[in-house]
Design a protein that fits this description.
The complex is a heterodimer of chains A (406) and B (572). Chain A has 406 residues and is of the alpha/beta class. In chain A, 49% of the residues lie in helices and 10% in strands. In chain A, helix 2 links the parallel strand 1 and strand 2. The two termini of chain A are 41 Å apart. The chains are: A alpha/beta (406), B alpha/beta (572).
Chain lengths: 406, 572
């Protein structure tokens, strides 16, 4: 659970202000003047007593929002000391939720400190359903092109959907809005794992506890830090955390069958047409082939023989004909999740060995959707999610009886 | 002294460590692993296992999937009854390490998510305990003398049975120092404490607080039916004994959260039921009579011994739980079966008279099953699916054997077999210095049966056990659900339903050595789909007729009854 020690000044402010409707929490430092300006603009259509909190130490009293219904407050940013990219964000998200709980808020919107989500339409879509008790949690559907957000689209989202039974497009997001009913659940999330501070998977947590969920397309683009572009590191952090959550939640998700559509708010179409040039799959296929040579030993420990054989066959294909079936990719992800649980190989090695396989699937996907519109590509992603769901019995079976696989 | 005063008298001023479990009913979902510190791992190579050694093996215990370690007595003791003769309740036997070593172990176990249960052996002490030494030297009627039960004659309490029939002729022993007889329900070197003396209970509560303050999660109350004696009774299960337990429980509830006490009451279920009280005595109690009847049912290839004893098992308060086991550190006790049943068990499971001791059979699980993997698995499937908390005895997870040529019950207390190295990897000491010889014969020896070998064998019993334990932990129904036996005409089939909310599990076991057909009456479950839980395989849906199954020799099925998967369009 996020433990934040609030300074006396802030505690006094909470007491003085009394309960509020909405806390908007920025998960990092922000310039107070810009924050105030953006918040004032984005909240113009929302009538709610609002606190805008940000990580920092600037005295709120000196800030320019004092004459508006919006109040600014800074809170101490707990350090995860992990060096991991998303863990810092998750830690800050938990802190914001804990702050909202302390403030007695009805809703809490967490958002990235690039402030890109502080736009009227985004806030309206994510906050209103929570304030109006239509949802306990509102998740964003980031409007993206067909080549964007592929880790989420081809791994995090389909895996989460199959396990937790909710069709959430972005289970790990910079922005979301939670209702008071789930504050504690989300701040407590992760306390199951001993001694490990996990990422916050808000949708999965709420799914476990049977909360109402919604999602809305938002035209928000967050610039990812350029110093964190190592694919293996990103995959290791995201997939490792998700697999760890799966281990902790096994008693729940093994009893979930099928999946529910999550109520959509806002417009129904959310695919963004790409102006980007075509992606060349060759380097990715080469990485896959290289992986099949160098990592064969790890793959053989993680994957059953039938899949290893299939990968061998794939490695002999030229780039133009390279296609990785959804069923195969789903089983690979499940087998890696299982290997992560079984610890027969170190987790770092397991997750590292996933990267070339991921690139293999991306190479396959980019060729399949090369001439497709974004909407067609999106349907392709939905099809992949369905494959993960269909293969879930394979995963459960492997999980329960790992030795019984040929 | 009133109960409140007794509790208040010892209330500690120092800071207590909290228990490690967040769910107050943690013991209902627990899987206990019983072990001897002396038998598990020897870190200093003196031939005796110790806490440092145990700490080095916590990862192994975690890998098993068990959730609570039950430590057999590790206190200072002359060790004439394997530590159940305690000479100091608040320390660690020097052979096993120090109090700090214990604290370190406790911390490591808690860090790894394990709970820890230790023994509270308070029916009796060692005759070397300072209390007894003071008592025998104190004049009759003095407070010191009054800590134990004395008499000028050995004719009192004549209706009390003798428990250790192989070694004891009477429950009274003459003490030449005290010039009086003292009372003992067990060995003559284990004088019973006098629970009619309130000071005894005060001291017991001090002991309890000493360990619970440290963070210990659970206490096993040893020999609990025998605390109080009265003429004209069999001196078992007396109302005054229950009063003492209630006092202990009240102190526990008043001062601690998330802790548990478990009663060792080797009695028929109806007599064990009062040890739960109105949920104001023990949280848990062993179900002793079930264990021999499981073996009997298997040998007779007939479910009746099991269904009979379960029919005699009364309901218990909601927060309470049965403790179930197949084997433990003692003999397979036959005290709670009829004479004919006992004779049958002796014939079936102890052909060699050396396998018998007192009123029971001193053998481990695997030898009792003649090393049949199928039978070992079947019995474990029952243990892990019956209503209660399963308790695993160290070494049984790898099918360790026993040594019937060792005295007392030491044949089932031999060193843990870690590897095929010297002394089974238990110790590097000269084998002659081991506290007990390791098992060395061709079938059961450590070179054939050890953790290291089974760890690397995906099909080993060890890995099978790990899977079974992990599977059980996925379903709360096993620890908390109701039990209902089905009554198929084929008596070689044991079939029962476990239910908890929307979790419904059908368990079917073939107690015979050959294939068996069975028709199950599953009225009320029409339309549900049985899914075999180990392999996650869907079976045909349940219809309006009897549900037919065919089960292989000693086979078993755990079937989760699922509602058919809803069909939704994948398009969004």
């Amino acid at each position: 659970m996020a433990e934040i020690e609030l300074p006396a000044e802030l505690l006094n402010k909470i007491e003085k202000t009394g309960p509020v409707d909405l806390v908007i929490g920025v998960t990092g430092p922000a310039a107070p003047s810009e924050l105030c300006s953006r918040a004032r603009n984005s909240l113009r259509d929302i009538s709610a007593k609002t606190i805008v909190a940000y990580a920092g130490t600037t005295h709120a009293d000196s800030l320019p929002c004092v004459d508006t219904p919006i109040q600014l407050a800074s809170f101490p940013m707990p350090s995860s000391n992990s060096g991991a990219f998303w863990l810092d964000i998750s830690t800050a998200q938990r802190s914001v939720l804990a702050l909202a709980e302390r403030w007695g808020a009805r809703a809490c919107m967490v958002t990235h400190n690039d402030l890109a989500a502080l736009e009227p339409e985004t806030l309206r879509l994510l906050v209103e359903p929570v304030l109006q008790s239509q949802a306990d949690l509102m998740m964003p559907i980031y409007v993206q092109g067909k080549y964007e957000g592929l880790i989420s689209k081809c791994l995090l989202a389909p895996f989460s959907r199959a396990l937790y039974g909710r069709r959430v497009r972005f289970p790990l997001s910079f922005d979301f809005c939670a209702g008071a009913a789930v504050f504690k659940k989300l701040t407590d999330a992760g306390s199951r794992a001993h001694g490990v501070a996990p990422l916050l998977w808000p949708a999965n947590e709420v799914a476990i506890r049977g909360g109402k969920m919604g999602q809305a397309p938002v035209a928000v683009h967050h610039a990812v830090r350029t110093d964190h572009n190592d694919l293996t590191a990103i995959l290791t952090e995201f997939a490792g955390s998700l697999f760890q959550e799966a281990e902790a939640d096994a008693a729940h998700w093994q009893r979930v069958r099928g999946s529910e559509v999550v109520t959509r708010f806002g417009k129904s179409s959310f695919a963004k047409e790409d102006s980007a040039a075509q992606i060349d799959p060759k380097p990715m296929v080469e990485s896959f082939v290289l992986g099949s040579r160098n990592l064969e030993e790890v793959w053989r420990l993680v994957l059953p023989p039938a899949i290893t054989l299939e990968l061998k066959r794939l490695s002999r294909l030229d780039a133009d004909n390279f296609r990785m079936p959804d069923t195969l990719w789903a089983r690979i992800v499940y087998d890696f999740a299982l290997a992560h649980r079984m610890r027969r190989v170190s987790r770092t090695h397991v997750l590292g060995a996933l990267t070339p396989l991921y690139l293999g699937w991306v190479a396959s996907y980019t060729q399949e959707v090369a001439s497709a519109t974004s909407e067609e590509a999106d349907r392709r992603i939905v099809q992949l999610a369905a494959a993960f769901e269909e293969q879930k019995p394979y995963f459960v079976s492997r999980w329960r009886w790992p030795e019984r696989v040929s | 002294m009133s109960l409140d005063k007794i509790i208040a008298a010892g209330a500690p001023a120092k800071k207590k460590k909290p228990g490690s479990a967040s769910d107050p009913l943690w013991y209902k979902d627990a899987i206990l692993y019983e072990l001897h510190v002396k038998a598990f791992a020897d870190s200093n190579n003196d031939g005796i296992g110790d806490f440092k050694g145990l700490i080095s093996k916590v990862d192994y215990i975690v890998s098993l999937g068990v959730t609570c370690i039950w430590l057999l007595p590790f206190f200072p003791s002359p060790l004439r009854d394997d530590g159940y003769d305690i000479a100091d309740y608040m320390d660690v036997h020097p052979s096993y390490g120090t109090l700090d070593d214990f604290k370190e172990f406790l911390s490591v176990a808690h860090d790894r998510g394990l709970q820890v249960m230790i023994e509270l052996v308070v029916n009796h002490t060692s005759d070397q305990h300072p209390w007894f030494q003071a008592a025998r030297n104190a004049p009759p009627g003095s407070p010191e003398r009054d800590f134990y039960v004395w008499s000028d004659t050995d004719q009192r309490y004549k209706d009390a049975r003798i428990i250790f029939t192989d070694t004891e002729r009477s429950n009274w022993t003459w003490d030449p120092v005290a010039q009086a007889y003292f009372w003992h329900r067990f060995f003559s070197h284990q004088p019973d404490l006098n629970f009619d003396n309130p000071r005894v209970l005060e001291e017991v509560l001090k002991v309890l607080r000493f360990w619970l303050d440290m963070g210990v999660d659970a206490l096993r109350l040893d020999a609990v039916p025998y605390l109080v004696e009265r003429d004209g009774t069999n001196c078992e299960n007396l109302a005054e004994t229950h009063e003492a337990i209630k006092t202990i429980r009240a102190a526990l509830d008043a001062e601690y959260e998330g802790r548990m006490i478990l009663a060792e009451a080797n009695q028929v279920p109806a007599n064990v039921r009062p040890y739960f009280g109105d949920a104001d005595e023990c949280h848990m109690a062993f179900h002793f009579p079930l264990m021999p009847r499981i073996y009997m049912a298997l040998s007779q290839e007939d479910r009746q011994p099991i269904t009979d004893i379960m029919a005699q098992t009364p309901e218990i308060p909601a927060p309470c739980q049965w403790g179930l086991f197949l084997r433990n550190h003692d003999e397979l006790t036959l005290e709670m079966v009829t004479g004919d049943e006992r004779d049958y068990m002796y014939l079936a499971y102890s052909a060699d008279p050396r396998m018998r001791i007192n009123v029971g059979i001193r053998r481990r699980l695997a030898p009792l099953m003649e090393n049949s993997r199928a039978r070992i698995e079947l019995l474990n499937s029952l243990l892990f699916s019956f209503p209660g908390t399963p308790i695993l005895y160290y070494g049984d997870e790898i099918g360790m054997g026993d040594n019937i040529y060792l005295g007392d019950r030491n044949g089932v207390r031999t060193p843990m077999q870690w590897s095929s190295d010297r002394n089974a990897g238990f110790s590097r000491v000269n084998p002659a210095r081991l506290y007990s010889p390791v098992i060395m014969d061709a079938v059961w020896g450590y070179e054939a049966i050890n953790v290291e070998a089974q760890d690397s064998d995906p099909s080993s019993l060890l890995n099978w056990m790990r899977n079974l334990i992990a599977l059980r932990k996925l379903f709360k129904v096993f620890g908390r659900g109701t039990l209902r036996f089905l009554d198929p005409s084929n008596c070689k089939i044991l079939a029962y339903l476990r239910e908890l909310g929307d979790e419904q599990v059908l368990c079917v076991a073939n107690l015979s050595r050959v294939w068996q057909p069975v028709q199950l009456d599953l009225k009320g479950f029409e339309g549900l789909i049985p899914v075999e839980m180990l392999g996650y395989v869907e079976f045909p849906a349940i219809g309006n007729d009897y549900y037919p199954l065919t089960i292989g020799p000693y086979g078993f099925l755990w079937l989760e009854l699922q509602t058919p998967k809803r069909v939704e369009d994948y398009e969004e």
